[in-house]
Automatic annotation (TrEMBL):
Keyword set, alphabetical order: ATP-binding, Cell membrane, Kinase, Membrane, Nucleotide-binding, Phosphoprotein, Transferase, Transmembrane, Transmembrane helix, Two-component regulatory system
MF annotations from Gene Ontology: kinase activity
Enzyme class: transferase
Domain HAMP: 1-33
Organism whose genome encodes this protein: Paenibacillus ottowii
Name used for this protein in its record: Signal transduction histidine-protein kinase ArlS
Length: 260
């Protein structure tokens, strides 16, 4: 018998191709499992909120006409839970649409002005001091303006929710990147939990956050935005002292700037 070469490949090439193929399948399987987990977590979160609304609606039906106290509590809670559900569904839609990265147009964005606008926009909803620190007059980068504002709102909203004192935004740049840091002096995060806060639906203490209105989707959206901008995001925190979120964004986007 003669040895027949398979498709012109030798044994080494074949085993290399098999390894690559197996790795691709593993990655596909992981991504499929993570999508399944996401759908199941989202359903669970929405279902919990619905059950709470249903509970209060039942209380209203049974005792609402006679008991003023129950009436007030139920109406207030139903309102709060529907607000929470609305935030969550909007955030889920944002996360889903952030998978289609190329749909968002990029433009030249001046980051210091953008931060000032967001800070001014948030002023009516809190009584805290948010200060911007920078040594530069202007810092420009290729970005989607709406997404940059959304990123800042998420980070400032967290800083406001989990701190009682002042909040600082530090902005700087080098020849390639822009560095944005949002720093608060609030409750901080236990060391072991920091790496998990960018996971979807992860909350450091879930009971605490039903009160603060958190959903556990803010930081995953912030990460999706920085990923789409080819940047990075990370968090440093000391429990009881405060938290700092550090974002790095490239000044120039590669291969995808329709207006430049
Ligand atoms: P949430 O809507 O719950 O704030 P996020 O994804 O934005 O969801 O944040 C995830 C969790 O990380 C929060 O529930 C909170 O426990 C923690 N966290 C985020 N930002 C801060 C911060 N600035 N200080 C303390 N804890 C924070």
């Amino acid at each position: 018998f003669k040895k027949i070469p398979v498709g012109g490949h030798n044994q080494d090439e074949l085993s290399q191709m098999t390894t690559t193929f197996n790795r691709m399948m593993e990655r596909l399987e992981e991504s499929f499992q993570s999508q399944q987990q996401f759908v199941s977590d989202a359903s669970h979160e929405l279902n919990t909120t619905l059950m709470i609304i249903e509970g209060y609606a039942n209380m209203l039906r049974r005792w609402g006409t006679h008991d003023e106290e129950i009436r007030k509590e139920s109406i207030e809670s139903i309102y709060e839970e529907t607000q929470r559900m609305r935030t969550m569904t909007q955030q889920l839609l944002t996360l889903a649409s952030s998978q289609h990265k190329d749909s968002e147009p990029y433009e030249r964005v001046e980051l210091i002005g953008c931060c000032q606008q967001v800070v001014a926009h948030l002023k009516p909803v809190h009584d805290r001091q948010i200060s911007i620190f920078t040594e530069e007059k202007e810092i420009w980068l290729d970005a989607n303006l709406a997404k940059m504002k959304q990123l800042l709102v998420i980070l400032l909203d967290n800083a406001l929710k989990y701190s009682s004192e002042k909040i600082e935004i530090w902005i700087s740049s080098n020849e390639k990147d822009v560095l944005l840091r949002v720093k608060d002096y609030g409750i901080g995060i236990p060391e072991g939990e920091i790496k998990r806060v960018f996971e979807r639906f992860y909350r450091v203490d879930s009971s605490r956050h039903r009160k603060t209105g958190g959903t556990g989707l803010g930081l995953p959206i912030a990460k999706a935005i920085t990923d789409a901008h080819q940047g990075t995001i990370r968090m440093e925190s000391v429990e009881g002292e405060g938290t700092e979120v550090i974002v790095t964004l490239p000044q120039k986007q590669q291969e995808r700037l329709p207006h430049q």
